[in-house]
């Protein structure tokens, strides 16, 4: 059995790969830059992108993991169709924040599928790194609670659904074990660093402009800031799914900070 992981070097994809390798599975990792992949030994690296499904080979692949990214909506249904035609019989997908064409195509594919619906990632805090290092502050427009989830837990749930039975047709809302405001997360980071870090609240427009400067489209920037201005109840409320699927507690934000302290 070979598992094809698309977006294998991305925020969650590399964790899916790592967990599958830990379980002894054969993994084929799809990435635009195999030379810079930095994935575990033994992983088969394939250059490519899931936004060009006609170029992909599913030879020997029986299971597929998809992470929804920009540009996939237009071709996602083709990607799923090609996988099914090639005898892929189990799929997982990390949604793009809503049930779009790829998510819907998978649910209607006729094969085993599991949809993961993570809310806010703990790794979003990495966007604070520069201002924390240079100015000792975090600049964000909102100070609202969010049950942020460790990207490694997302990868572990995906790997479990790909390898173990009992997850077909399930939709998993994924959160961390605590609902924390921005200030509370900053306090955890500051305690780990041994120094005070402030919150400097910026305007909604400043937050949008910051995303635009990073190359994000206006539509995506407005969607992201709109989401953060009024997070859905699923994002604010702790969900026990990670612990139920993995048989261990979801990792805390303090644990995530400890793993990434050198970035700040």
From TrEMBL:
Annotated membrane-spanning segments are none
Q: Which residues form the NmrA-like domain?
A: 2-91
**Pfam families, A to Z:** NmrA (PF05368)
Coiled-coil spans in chain: none
Cite the PANTHER family for this sequence.
Answer: PRESTALK A DIFFERENTIATION PROTEIN A, PTHR43162
Descriptive protein name: Hydroxylase
Q: Which organism is it from?
A: Amycolatopsis alba DSM 44262
């Amino acid at each position: 059995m070979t598992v094809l992981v698309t977006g294998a070097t991305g925020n969650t994809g590399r964790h899916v790969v790592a967990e599958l390798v830990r379980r002894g599975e054969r993994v084929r990792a799809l990435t635009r830059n195999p030379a810079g992949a930095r994935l575990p030994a033994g992983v088969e690296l394939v250059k490519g992108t899931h936004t060009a499904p006609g170029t992909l080979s599913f030879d020997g692949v029986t299971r597929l993991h998809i992470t929804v990214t920009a540009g996939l909506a237009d071709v996602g249904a083709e990607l799923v169709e090609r996988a099914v035609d090639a005898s892929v019989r189990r799929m997982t997908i990390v949604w793009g924040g809503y049930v779009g064409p790829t998510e819907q195509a998978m649910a209607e594919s006729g094969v085993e599928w599991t949809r993961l619906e993570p809310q806010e990632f703990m790794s979003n805090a990495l966007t604070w790194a520069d201002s924390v290092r240079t100015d000792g502050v975090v600049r964000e427009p909102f100070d609202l609670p969010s049950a942020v989830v460790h990207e490694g837990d997302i990868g572990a749930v995906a790997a479990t659904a790909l390898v173990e039975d009992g997850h077909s047709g399930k939709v998993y809302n994924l959160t961390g074990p605590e609902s924390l405001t921005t200030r509370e997360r900053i306090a955890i980071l500051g305690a780990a660093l041994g120094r005070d870090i402030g919150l400097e609240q910026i305007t909604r427009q400043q937050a949008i402009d910051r995303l635009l400067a990073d190359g994000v489209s206006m539509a995506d920037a407005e969607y992201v800031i709109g989401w953060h201005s009024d997070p859905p109840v699923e994002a604010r409320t702790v969900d026990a799914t990670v612990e139920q699927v993995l048989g261990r507690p979801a990792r805390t934000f303090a644990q995530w900070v400890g793993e990434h302290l050198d970035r700040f």
